[in-house]
Hints:
The chain has helices at about 1-20, 75-85, 150-155, 205-220, 265-270, and strands at about 30, 35, 90-95, 115-120, 140-145, 160-165, 190-200, 235-250, 260. The protein is of the alpha+beta class. It folds into two domains: about 1-55, no CATH class; about 75-285, Roll (Pnp Oxidase, Chain A). Keywords: Signal.
Amino acid sequence: xxxxxxxxxxxxxxxxxxxxxxxxxxxxxxxxxxxxxxxxxxxxxxxxxxxxxxxxxxxxxxxxxxxxxxxxxxxxxxxxxxxxxxxxxxxxxxxxxxxxxxxxxxxxxxxxxxxxxxxxxxxxxxxxxxxxxxxxxxxxxxxxxxxxxxxxxxxxxxxxxxxxxxxxxxxxxxxxxxxxxxxxxxxxxxxxxxxxxxxxxxxxxxxxxxxxxxxxxxxxxxxxxxxxxxxxxxxxxxxxxxxxxxxxxxxxxxxxxxxxxxxxxxxxxxxxxxxxxxxxxxxxxxxxxxxxxxxx
Length: 296
């Protein structure tokens, strides 16, 4: 019996030595500030072998950190985030089911306190509004909200809201982030806006209503069917804005883009062409391009 165990131990040792001999080493530079793996600029991906039997012979290159890889400043990143909002027409809205739902709620009792994420139309319309209703473009996106929608039933019951938007749907409009690296959605930016829903005061002033319709329908022509007061609309609706209180940004791959919480004062002070006095270096979101965006 002892000889049998010694034989098994010998086999295990030989197997381990074999694996160590054939294993392909992999190393990657690490950006300690974010605990993110840093992807290098010297990628040459191996071509597919003609013979499937040769797949085990592929040797993948070691990722090397570029000599002068620096992430953009936080202000530049905030400009990019505002540009992302301006170019986006949809976002994933997350809300919480209430523990005290209204009597006409149809949600199962066990979901109380749980979150739900649903894609919603958005539009960056604040700059299009008259001064009495808007702030010149402060980064608070506009909703044409349906009373029946789960997102807005939850906010009406007291839930806060977060809206996540990204550049991933524009992958075909981007260029590779690094020489030799393929198009990658994972390297493109995304941002989450955290805050609360604030309905526009009713009745909405005529000039504000006209501005909202003009701006919103440019992004969502189909939404004319459920505009507020529309006679044949399947659902009733109202105009609302997301008042942003916090912003979380993932610019792309860590080490090459910023990842973390943004300065909300800067977020609200940025404008399309020129930011408000004292905000960053004065540039507007039109002065930057998104990571991967053609021409960036």
